[in-house]
């Protein structure tokens, strides 16, 4: 009699465990789908190292949602971009921002956190087409 009770309890525990497992998997899948929907659009990744950005010019399309991200490879930097009516300030505490650039043109990207002897030359361009 006890064997049957333990067997039934074991089966119930297994079924409950599988239910929790599948619920967690579907929750993660929903989170990934929501993240993918939010990340639709363009990505602008700016990589900063000591006294330089990874590119001299960054090009994006106007009118599309853009996730602008700052990655610090070396040193501590803060980026400022003023593009038409959009102003972006990114740093270690605020590494990304979702914006839409509506005004085509060429805009300055500058490091605004004094980062050493080459700081004055730490500039790049954002080309919005």
Assign the CATH superfamily of the largest domain.
Cupredoxins -  blue copper proteins
β-strand amount: 35-45%
Adjacency order of strands in the biggest sheet? 3-9-8-5-6
Per CATH, the architecture of the largest domain is: Sandwich
Give the C-alpha Rg: 24 Å
- Which word captures the global form? elongated
First CA to last CA: what distance? 77 Å
Uncertain stretches of 5 or more adjacent residues: none
Main β-sheet description: 5 strands, mixed
According to CATH, what is the topology of the largest domain? Immunoglobulin-like
Mean pLDDT rating: 84
Number of domains: 2
Order of helices and strands: HEEEEEEEEE
Count every beta strand, where a strand is a DSSP E run of 2 or more residues: 9
How many individual helices? Answer: 1
Organism: Paenibacillus hexagrammi
InterPro entries: Cupredoxin
Protein name: EfeO-type cupredoxin-like domain-containing protein
How would you describe this structure to a colleague?
With 129 residues, the chain is of the alpha+beta class. The chain folds into two domains: 1-38; 42-128, Cupredoxins -  blue copper proteins (Immunoglobulin-like, Sandwich), CATH 2.60.40. 29% of the residues lie in helices and 39% in strands. The protein contains one helix and nine strands. A hairpin with a 2-residue loop joins strand 1 and strand 2 (52-53).
């Amino acid at each position: 009699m006890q064997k049957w009770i333990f067997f039934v309890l074991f089966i119930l525990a297994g079924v409950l465990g599988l239910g929790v497992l599948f619920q967690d998997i579907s929750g993660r899948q929903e989170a990934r789908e929501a993240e993918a929907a939010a990340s639709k659009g363009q990505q602008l990744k700016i990589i900063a190292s000591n006294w330089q950005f990874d590119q001299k010019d960054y090009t994006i399309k106007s009118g599309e949602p853009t996730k602008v991200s700052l990655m610090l490879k070396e040193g501590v930097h803060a980026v400022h971009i003023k593009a038409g009516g959009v102003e972006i300030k990114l740093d270690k505490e605020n590494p990304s921002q979702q914006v839409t650039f509506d005004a085509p043109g060429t805009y300055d990207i500058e490091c605004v956190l004094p980062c050493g002897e080459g700081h004055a030359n730490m500039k790049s361009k954002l080309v919005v087409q």
